[in-house]
Design goal:
alpha+beta, Metallo-beta-lactamase, Chain A, Arc Repressor Mutant, subunit A, seven-stranded mixed beta sheet, six-stranded mixed beta sheet, 35% helix, disordered C terminus
C-alpha cells in the first residue's frame, strides 16, 4: 500500500499494516524525496512494487534493526542517515552480533538461525544523525530527537509545523516497548517516551502501527505503562529467590511464546536481563549465589516519576 497521510507524506505498508516481522515505512515527497526506514530484505519485491517509480534521494533510519534497514540496498544512490551509536551494527556483522548479545548468550545454531532469517547485509551510512539536528527536505523540516533505549541510537523525527512525529520502534503496539537486545536500556527508554509525550504530537507515524491520530498522548502513556507493568511483575516474582532461568520461564515479558520456542526463550532472557540490570542499579533487586531477590527498597524518584 502507498497511502497518503498528508500532501507530502505517504505510508508505505504491507497489507497487515506492519505487524512484526513486517514494518511500515514513510515516504516524504518533497524537494529531497526521502524514505523513513525500509523493511526486511524478505519483503524486497513487495516494497519495490509499493514504491513504484517514486525517486529516493535520502533514507533516514530510525535505528539499526533489519526490519527498519533491510531494503536500504534497493536505493544505492540514496544517502543514508543514522545515529552513530547504531551505525556499527549496520556496517559490521560482528557488531550486529554483539549488539544482539549473540556472542555471549546464544549458541551458534540459534545465532545462525536468526541471522539467516534476518538476511543481514551491510548498509553504508553517509551521514550521522544528532539530537536537535534540523533536516530540511524542502517544505518539510524534521527535527531529530535521539531517543535511546530500544537501541542505543534510536531516533525519532518531528515535523513540528504539522505536529507529526515519526516514531520508529517506539511504536505504540499493544505489546509495549521492546528492549530485547543486550544494549537496550529501560531507564533511557522511559526517558525517551516521556520526552515524546512532552511534545504532545497531533499524529504519530509508527513503524509497526502506521498512522495514529486519536488519543495520541493517552496512547503514549498506556504504552509506557505496559513497560512498568512488566517490571512490577518481575519484582513481584522476586519476592522469592529465583534463578535467571526460573524467572525467564515465567514469561513475564512476552507472556506467551510462539512455536520458535528457542527464539522466544532467548529474547525473553535478554529482556529480563535488561530489567535486572536496571533493578540491580536501583538496588531494588540483589543477586546471591546465582539467584535474584527483591530487596523491598522503593525505586528512586527518577524511576517512579512515570508511574
Amino acid at each position: 500500500m502507498f497511502t497518503p497521510v498528508t500532501d507530502k507524506v505517504y505510508m508505505v505498508a504491507p497489507a497487515d499494516h506492519g505487524n512484526f516481522p513486517s514494518s511500515v515505512s514513510f515516504y516524504i515527497d518533497d524537494k529531497i524525496p526521502t524514505l523513513i526506514d525500509t523493511p526486511l530484505t524478505a519483503w524486497s519485491e513487495a516494497f519495490k512494487a509499493n514504491m513504484g517509480d517514486h525517486p529516493v534521494k535520502r533514507i533516514l533510519n530510525t535505528h539499526y534493526h533489519r526490519d527498519h534497514t533491510g531494503c536500504n540496498h534497493l536505493f544505492p544512490e540514496a544517502e543514508v542517515y543514522a545515529h552513530p551509536a547504531d551505525i556499527p551494527a549496520m556496517t559490521s556483522q560482528d557488531e550486529f552480533i554483539r549488539y544482539y548479545g549473540f556472542d555471549k548468550y546464544a549458541d551458534q545454531t540459534l545465532t545462525n538461525e536468526i541471522l539467516s532469517w534476518l538476511k543481514w547485509q551491510p548498509s553504508p551510512v553517509a551521514h550521522q544523525l544528532e539530537d536537535g539536528q534540523i533536516i530540511k527536505l524542502g517544505e518539510v523540516e524534521l527535527t531529530v530527537m535521539h531517543t535511546p533505549g530500544h537501541t542505543p541510537g534510536h531516533c525519532v523525527f518531528y515535523w513540528e509545523e504539522q505536529g507529526i512525529l515519526f516514531s520508529g520502534d517506539i511504536d505504540l503496539t499493544s505489546f509495549g516497548p521492546w528492549y530485547g537486545n543486550i544494549n537496550s536500556d529501560i531507564t533511557q527508554l522511559i526517558t525517551s517516551i516521556e520526552r515524546m509525550i512532552s511534545l504532545n504530537p497531533r499524529l504519530i507515524c509508527s513503524g509497526h502501527k502506521g498512522v495514529i491520530d486519536h488519543n495520541v498522548s493517552g496512547r503514549l502513556q498506556k504504552y509506557l505503562h505496559r513497560l512498568l507493568e512488566k517490571e512490577d511483575r518481575i519484582l513481584q516474582a522476586l519476592q522469592q529467590p529465583l534463578t535467571l532461568d526460573e524467572l525467564v520461564r515465567r514469561k513475564l515479558v512476552y507472556e506467551k511464546w510462539g512455536q520458535a520456542e528457542s527464539q522466544y526463550y532467548y529474547f525473553e532472557k535478554l529482556s529480563v536481563l535488561v530489567h535486572l540490570r536496571r533493578l540491580l542499579e536501583l538496588q531494588q533487586v540483589e543477586e546471591h549465589e546465582g539467584k535474584y531477590r527483591a530487596t523491598g527498597k522503593a525505586a528512586s524518584q527518577c524511576a517512579t516519576a512515570s508511574k
